[in-house]
Structure formats: structure tokens, C-alpha cells
Amino acid sequence: MTRISVLLTTTLLATTTIAQSNREPPSTGLHSLFLSAGKLYFGTATETNNFADPTYQNILSNPLEFGQLTPENSQKWGLIQPQPGDFSFNASDQVASLANSYNHLLRCHTLTWHSQLPPFVSSTSWTPDTLRQLITTHITSVISHFGSACYAWDVVNEALNENGTFRNSVFFNVLGEEYIAHSFEVAREVAPPETKLYYNDFNLETAPEKQTAAVELVKSLQSKGVKIDGVGLQAHFTVGQTPSVESLIATLQRFADLGVDVAWTELDVAQEDVETASELAVEQQASDYVVAVRACLEVERCVGVTVWQFTDRYSWVPGTFPGKGGACLWTEDYQRKPAYWAVKRFLEGWVARMNVTRAFVGGNETTVRTVASPRGPLTEVTSGSERLEGSLVKVAFISFGVWLVLNMM
Ligand code: G3I
């Protein structure tokens, strides 16, 4: 009788341990877990037109979920200097001051970019000297205004084509590739020394020639003595077309090997057809997000991840690619998606593995799959911590069994 009750108590204790470990600890979020994993931030793009939305603000201000903000539009040339010499800092100041009040880092975006230029920049017939001077004035004024509020600046944005050639723009057409070095030199001159200066681009993860051209660009700047601190990879992915974790790690590492920081600066994973996205596509999106986040964790010089808005309510994707969407971690009505939970549980596993010995756990594999539940399909992520718990519970049962047999003899 006593032996049976010991057996029951032990079983109950083991079950309780598993149940407790599955309960969502309220004291962690994406950013806090990223910090525990040794990274600098998990952040999001945001903009002033989202600020009046209290539910949005509640999530944005949660220091467990986010530790970094990027102004989605308000620091772009067309908005910040719409007329020659007429600087308009009101909206971007609001983003900066919000970041400051929430104690979030601010990644500033962006200085020299071919897009969202005001007509006076794109349509004037510049000489090399006048355009060089215009870039100098713009960068000097904008960086000086924000001073040390910016942890990092995307100094030059999207200068390359997918085939590795330089993109045609007013800057390239008048100055050639020299405009890139010039932008970095001006930025370095005026920015506080601790500000990180980035080259930022999209499809560096998927277009091999573009990736190689970006590597060559960084090397070329370095060989001229132009200091560049980081490469931002935008990571705008599509469900099911996200590169493998090995490929993403190799990409990040290739830039990191040049001696610069790297970051996912605009991560989102869009459904090709949001209306017809299947359960499988939802599961695939969760897996794609985990792959991207994991690649950053695996590369030491990857400082953090920024999602390009955290809710579908304000995602840029449907406006640019009609039919596409559902790209964010939260739904339009602020429900956390399976992708959110998958990333969170992966991070929990990662942090647990860091805190315990890797020897117990084995490799870093994380599996994501959809399982049936009474409340409908759920995305299940099996991570290292669960394998560790499983091992400990098994050891406890085996030890108890041995003890029982010895006592019955
Ligand atoms: O502010 C005007 C508004 O007054 C007007 O009524 C409305 C009508 O269309 O347009 C509003 O401006 C829009 C602006 O976003 C602010 O909402 C522009 O049309 C629209 O083109 C602009 O889109 C932005 C896009 O960059 C433009 O280049 C997206 O929000 C923004 O998410 C996107 O972000 C870029 C990154 O900066 C660089 N990497 C790619 C990424 C996605 O395209």
C-alpha cells in the first residue's frame, strides 16, 4: 500500500513538473528572451500614425516584448526635408521620444536612399559638386538633430540591384558609387562615435549576386578607410520561400567575417495569398520565423532582430503586394499568432539550453508541427529544454523503478 502511494505521488510530481513547464511564464517576452540569449534587442518598426491606438501601444511599450524601435517612414528624406533646407522633424521626434520613454533603442532609418525622395532632389539637374554638397547638408542636419538618440543609422539603403550592379538613382547617376563612401564619411564625421553606421538592403539573403556585391561594397569601403559598422539584412520573406537556417547562418556569417555587426532589420514573412492561407502555411510561417530568429542567435555578431511592424493591422505588405499579407507575429486584432508562440518557445528552449549543460540536450534542432487539440489546431514547437525535461523525468522514473525492485527483493 505504502509502495503504491509512493508510486502515485512520484507520478503526480512528474506530471506536475511537465504541466508547470508548459504554462506560459508571464515574466518573459521576445525581447527579454533575446537579452537572456546574449543579444542586444528584439524590436519593431513603428510610426506616428499608429500611436493613437491604445492596444497597439500596450504591446509596443511592453519591455518584455520589445527593446528597440525603427521609424518606419518619418526619417526618410521626403518627409524629413521635403523642401530644400526645410527640415520637418515633428513626426520622427515623436518616434524618438517614444523610444526614449519606453527605454527602447532607436535604429534610425534612413539617409541616402533612392526611394521616397522629394521632387527637388529627384528632379534637379545636379552637378557632382552640388549633389555631394546636398548629401552633406542632409546627413549633417539629420544626424546632428538626433544626436545620441540613434543607436544606429541606416546610412545608405538599397544601393544594389539583384544582379549585383549598382541601382540607378539620382545619386548613382550623378556621382557613381562614390556617393556611398561620401555618405558614410559625412555620417562618421557628424555622428557620436558610438553610433553604428549600417549599409541596409533587401534580398541579400536570397540573391547570390546581390549578396556578393554587398560583400564587395563593404570591402571596398574598408579598403578606402571608410568605416562601416554593420550590414542590415532586411529579411522580407515569403512563407515557404524563406532560405534554410544553414543558408541564413552562412549569409550572416559572410558579412560578420568582414568585421561588421549584422542584424535582421525588417523581418516579416508574408503569406503569398492571405485569403487562402492553409493550416500548413500557418505552420510554415511559424517555422520560417523560427529559422530567421535562430540564424541570428547562431551568429555571434548578429546583434538583434527588428520586425517590420508586429501586427498585420499596420503591415506594409498588402498595400504594396495586393493579395499578399498576414506577414506579422500578431493578427490585425492583436492575437498572437502560432508564429509568435513558435518563436517564443524556441527562444525559451535556447535560453534553457544556454543555462544548463549542452551535453544533456544534444543538437540545436527545433521542430515545428501542427497538432490537433480540443480548441482546434495548435502549433507545437519541441525545443531543447523539453528534451532536457524529458530526459530528467525519464531518469527519475528509472531511478525510482530500480529503487522499487531493490526494495521488493
Ligand atoms: O503619408 C501618405 C498619405 O498622406 C497619403 O494619403 C497616402 C496615400 O497613398 O500615402 C501616405 O504615404 C505612404 C507612406 O508609406 C506612409 O504610410 C506611401 O504612399 C507609401 O508608399 C509608404 O510606404 C512605405 C514604403 O516603405 C515606401 O517606400 C511603407 O510604409 C514602409 O513600410 C516601407 O518600408 C520599406 C523600408 O523603408 C525599406 N525597405 C523596404 C520596406 C518595405 O517596402
TrEMBL record:
<keyword id="KW-0732">Signal</keyword>
<dbReference type="InterPro" id="IPR001000">
    <property type="entry name" value="GH10_dom"/>
</dbReference>
<dbReference type="InterPro" id="IPR044846">
    <property type="entry name" value="GH10"/>
</dbReference>
<dbReference type="GO" id="GO:0045493">
    <property type="term" value="P:xylan catabolic process"/>
</dbReference>
<keyword id="KW-0326">Glycosidase</keyword>
<keyword id="KW-0378">Hydrolase</keyword>
<keyword id="KW-0858">Xylan degradation</keyword>
<dbReference type="GO" id="GO:0005576">
    <property type="term" value="C:extracellular region"/>
</dbReference>
<comment type="similarity">
    <text>Belongs to the glycosyl hydrolase 10 (cellulase F) family.</text>
</comment>
<feature type="domain" description="GH10">
    <location>
        <begin position="24"/>
        <end position="346"/>
    </location>
</feature>
<protein>
    <recommendedName>
        <fullName>Beta-xylanase</fullName>
        <ecNumber>3.2.1.8</ecNumber>
    </recommendedName>
</protein>
<keyword id="KW-0624">Polysaccharide degradation</keyword>
<dbReference type="InterPro" id="IPR017853">
    <property type="entry name" value="GH"/>
</dbReference>
<comment type="pathway">
    <text>Glycan degradation; xylan degradation.</text>
</comment>
<keyword id="KW-0964">Secreted</keyword>
<dbReference type="GO" id="GO:0031176">
    <property type="term" value="F:endo-1,4-beta-xylanase activity"/>
</dbReference>
<keyword id="KW-0119">Carbohydrate metabolism</keyword>
<feature type="signal peptide">
    <location>
        <begin position="1"/>
        <end position="19"/>
    </location>
</feature>
<dbReference type="Pfam" id="PF00331">
    <property type="entry name" value="Glyco_hydro_10"/>
</dbReference>
